[in-house]
Amino acid sequence: MDILDYFESLRRGIQQNHSIGSIEEPVLMQAFDDCRGLFRARVFFWDNSHLTIDEVIDTEGGYPEILRYSYNYIKGNEHVLRYDNAPHYPALENFPHHKHIGPDETPESSHQPRLSQVFSEIEAILATGSGGS
């Protein structure tokens, strides 16, 4: 799999997600070379909350390895959750992977999520009406 194949498969998967109302254009799909690149998109849900997806990917091994990621979900003007692997909480278990919770963005340990897991978590928030204003 080369980086362009990964970009297209990720974009298709996002477009086929029934929870998403719209995708902000342009979606950034920047190839650094045949195997590495940056994917950035913002998707909006039915209540106008949104998720910003930011991934730096390497496909040299034949499969996508996400080197850097941030999945930031905002509802109204409040942060609800953000997963990322920025190396700024070395004391947390599973460093550098962590999750920020709530408007204060309280960090907690986390495993690296798959994007589908992030969407499932957001769908649960939307279903219960919790998180943000």
Layout: helices, strands, pairs:
Layout: H1 3-15, E1 20-23, E2 28-31, E3 36-45, E4 50-58, E5 65-75, E6 78-84, E7 98-101, E8 106-109, H2 115-128
Antiparallel strand pairs: 1-3, 2-3, 3-4, 4-5, 5-6, 6-7, 7-8
What does this structure look like?
The protein has one domain (3-128). With 133 residues, it is α+β, with helices and mostly antiparallel strands. 21% of the residues are buried. It starts with a helix and ends in a 5-residue tail after the last helix. It contains two helices and eight strands. It is globular and about 40 Å long. Helix content is 20%, strand content 40%. Strands 1, 2, 3, 4, 5, 6, 7 and 8 form an eight-stranded antiparallel sheet that branches.
Unreliable stretches: none
- Profile the largest sheet: 8 strands, antiparallel
Instruction: Determine the number of helices (DSSP H or I, runs of at least 4 residues).
Output: 2
Task: Name the average pLDDT.
Answer: 94
Secondary-structure-derived class: alpha+beta
State the assembly state of the protein chains: single chain
Could you state the order of secondary-structure elements as H and E?
Answer: HEEEEEEEEH
Please tally the β strands and state the result. 8
Rg, Å, rounded: 15 Å
Distance between the termini: 41 Å
Shape: globular
Strand content: 35-45%
Count of folded domains: 1
